[in-house]
Design a protein that fits this description.
Number of helices: 9
Largest sheet: none
Number of domains: 2
Strand content: under 5%
Radius of gyration: 17 Å
Helix content: 55-70%
Shape: globular
Number of strands: 0
């Protein structure tokens, strides 16, 4: 079953009676937030599917390895969306996979009406190179580079 977006679930809930709650949960299991459907599980499964090692991802993302493992295990939490974007880019996620990872992490998706986010979205689609190349591209357009571990480059 495919994950449903929030609007679709909200529309369904608008027509759901209390007595149908269990049925709603069963029918929408793949769309609900749960431990088995968490950010950590999602990212690790995608990396395995793409045959990419976590260590390699953290190196490419320029995220300290120990910190990266703690983020993926849920031991640490970041408020820096750029760190999650870096990990997704380094793990060769598609734009839609990245948007889903951001949602699962509880962060705002990349937003097409935001200049910086729009350029990052294009970078996910075109893959201009490494994170360094993406940051160079952002800087050349007068935009902030992707931050790492709470420190601005």
């Amino acid at each position: 079953m495919q994950e449903k977006d929030t609007n679709e679930l909200e529309n369904t809930l608008g027509k759901t009676h209390l007595s149908d709650y269990d049925k709603y949960l069963k029918n929408n299991k793949d769309s609900m937030l749960s431990e088995s459907n968490s950010f950590s599980t999602y990212v690790k499964e995608l990396m395995n599917k793409k045959k990419i090692k976590q260590q390699e991802v953290f190196l490419k993302a320029d995220v300290p390895e120990r910190y990266g493992y703690k983020l993926l295990s849920g031991e640490k939490h970041t408020k820096q969306r750029d760190v999650i974007v870096r990990i997704c880019y380094a793990a060769e996620f598609t734009l839609s996979e990245t948007q889903r990872a951001l949602r699962k992490y509880g962060m705002a998706e990349l937003y097409a009406k935001d200049e910086r986010d729009a350029l990052i979205m294009i970078a996910f689609n075109e893959r201009p190179g490494s994170i360094i190349d993406v940051n160079t591209m952002l800087k050349s357009h007068g935009l902030q580079p992707l931050r790492t571990s709470g420190v601005q480059e």
